[in-house]
Amino acid sequence: MISKDKGKSSRAAIQASELRYRRVFESAQDGILILDFKSGKIVDANPFITNLLGFAVNEVIGKELWEIGFIIDKELARHAYLELQTNNFIRYDDLPLQHKNGQVIDVEFVSNVYEVGLEKVIQCEIRDVSERKILTKKMAKSELRYRRLFESAQNGILILDFISGQIVDANPFILDLLGFSYEELVGKELWEIGSTFDKDFTLQAYEELQRKDYLRYENLPLKKKYGQLIDVEFIGNVYDAGGEKVIECNIRDISSLKKLRQVQYLAAIGMDDLVNALVSMAEARDPYTAGHQLRVAELSVAIAKELHYAETNLEGLRMSAMLHDIGKFIIPAEILTKPTALTDFEIGMLRSHVIEGYKILKLIHFPWPVAQTVLQHHERLDGSGYPNGLKGDSICDEARIIGVADTVEALTSSRPYRVAVGLDIALMNILEESEKLFDPKIVAICLRLFREKKFKFSSSKIKESFSIETIRKSL
User: Fold this and answer.
1) Tens digits of per-residue pLDDT, 441-461?
2) CATH number, domain at 87?
């Protein structure tokens, strides 16, 4: 006979086991239905499934599985129940159920038959996969977008295995660029395909990419299938794809760009020669101011650098400053070198140099607004300048800079009609006219350049001191 103590102990163990089961059953984060094996009626349902489908426990218990509203396909449910009785297991990875309010929910449905005591019961585990299904669709859509970008990209793309360095994918652009078929590239290691000149260099680059996750060559020579050389920009990145590292190589053909840069370089040299020729032409008419335009350009560029101008814009400003007095070519030398005060008519002729300079420069296709800058460099903020009396923001920034630099340089250099007034007076002049005639920000920078950064003009290339007589003899 079983002792009373042992009986109590067994009952206590059963109760403890039942308690543990109920805790797991009640707190499970998947839906659980317990069915009677013979009838298919629901005998228990946990809170997760009732919350998921919106039914109360009393609306579920005692009902056959296909009787409840959440089973959309009743015949499928009956067939599944019969199959479950035969095979003791059934699974649906994607089964639509209906919430009490009509909303359709996608679930993963797994049923097992097991014995409790001497009786069989059916346990149905139901997992909401709606979010997973949405995520899968998004991933598929994302993959489709990626493939479209990959296939249509106008740069070459190679995807490499991180560990082996083998090419696992190649887009049409790189195939066309290098002249290989897809089959000739995929499965080969990068250094096997013969496009790089130095296998050891390629291996070292690959190892560096593994260490640093990034690699870039701005100008890398590659060889096409039949030996033609091309210049490319090569960028390699390591990124994570589903828990695995892969290497993406972006390859851009810069052969045409390299040729264009060579042409631009030659054009820039030609542009400099043209500018120097024009400056020499102007200074031939007014040798007393030889070097003036060069010094104005020096100060203008120094100011612009303080304003953080881009390098290309600095070059445009430099050329504008070098040519700002080019229009004086048409002014009679007698007026340019006159040692006495000019008449109103002569002042009008002298002021016309900005318009004449504009007429000359607008015919040259500079990549910067050189002609417009030259036209405006004598305009002043209050509208008192010439030739158009522009005010404030109507005057371009380059013209404002040159206006300040031109004034300072002119006052610190001697002219036929006056001696140089000196740097201190020149700086005081632009400070007093700040906000009225000159841009205060540009004035402040100009003052700081001379007073704090010790800016100095270059010495004039013209060493001889000119008198009126020697000037006229030289013309």
Assistant:
1) 999 999 999 999 999 988 754
2) 3.30.450.20
Please indicate, yes or no, if residue 146 is contained in any of the structural domains: no
Displacement of CA 391 from its chain's centroid (Å): 37
Give the SS3 label for residue 48: helix
What is the reported pLDDT for 40? 82
Where are the strands (E) in 242-352, listed by range? 244-253
Helix axis angle, 440-451 relative to 423-432, nearest 10°? 160
Do 405 and 319 lie in one domain? The reply is: yes
Residues 194 and 276 in one domain: no
Q: Tell whether 100 and 205 lie within a shared domain.
A: no
CA end-to-end distance (rounded Å), the chain: 140
| Confidence (pLDDT) at 239 | 86
Q: Which of 256, 261, 296 is nearest to 407 (CA)?
A: 296
Tokens standing for residue 430: 């632009």
Q: Is residue 197 predicted with pLDDT exceeding 50? A: yes
Q: Is residue 10 part of a domain?
A: no
Mean pLDDT of all residues in the chain?
Answer: 82
193, part of any domain: yes
d(CA 114, CA 78): 19
What is the rounded CA–CA span in Å between residue 15 and residue 460? 107
Among 207, 233, 253, the domain-final residue is: 253
Confidence of residue 302 (pLDDT cuts 50, 70, 90): very high
DSSP string, 191-225: GGSS-SS-HHHHHHHHHHHHHHSEEEEEEEEEE-T
Choose among 110, 123, 108: nearest CA to 52.
108
Question: Does 472 have pLDDT greater than 50?
Answer: no
Q: How far apart are CA 207 and CA 212, in angstroms?
A: 9
Q: Is residue 56 part of a domain?
A: yes
C-alpha distances out from residue 44 to 77, 115, 349, Å: 18, 16, 107
User: Which residue, 467, 461, 411, is CA-closest to 283?
Assistant: 461
Tell whether 360 and 428 lie within a shared domain: yes
Domain of 198, in residue numbers: 153-253
Same domain membership, residue 283 and residue 204: no
> Distance between CA atoms of 183 and 166, rounded to whole angstroms?
13
Please indicate, yes or no, whether residues 32 and 63 belong to a single structural domain of this protein: yes
Q: CB–CB of 215/205 below 8 Å?
A: yes
* Last residue of one domain, picked from the residues 253, 279, 306: 253
